[in-house]
Amino acid sequence: MITITRIDERLIHGQVAFAWTTAYKVDVVMVVDNEVSKDDFQKSLLEMACPAGLKCLVVDDEKAVKFLERNGNKRFFIVVKEPGVLVKMMNNGVTFDSINVGGIYFKEGRRQLSKTVYVDDAMIEDFKKLDANGVALDVRTTPSDTSEDLMKLI
User: Fold this and answer.
1) Is 144 part of the annotated catalytic residue set?
2) Start and end of every PTS EIIB type-4 domain (predicted)?
């Protein structure tokens, strides 16, 4: 079961590794990224950043869907860099109740929605697709922050 899904371009870092995994009591941290999953060095860095006692997986979106189908009894924390990955997973049968949007940072062509969320037009379209499928989209940097509805910021 998916306990929490987060969009954060940094993937696994201090907040993800400790605050979120503690607040949501997960068994597995699953990084879903097609590029990073092919890079053994980046994979090993992410695995080292995972808290002791938690399983850490770095997989592409196809493997993520298959792994979730076979391991529904585990509590998953899914982390991705951008919403398009989650749209692909949703289109392949994965159900998301909610998604935390925490760290999408400034780049040329993006506009600011919150202190830590900058989006481009393609991301807005992906968020609209997720919203249209009943996925709650909240903006929080840490688990204790007040939740903001992403769709109201768009």
Assistant:
1) no
2) 1-154
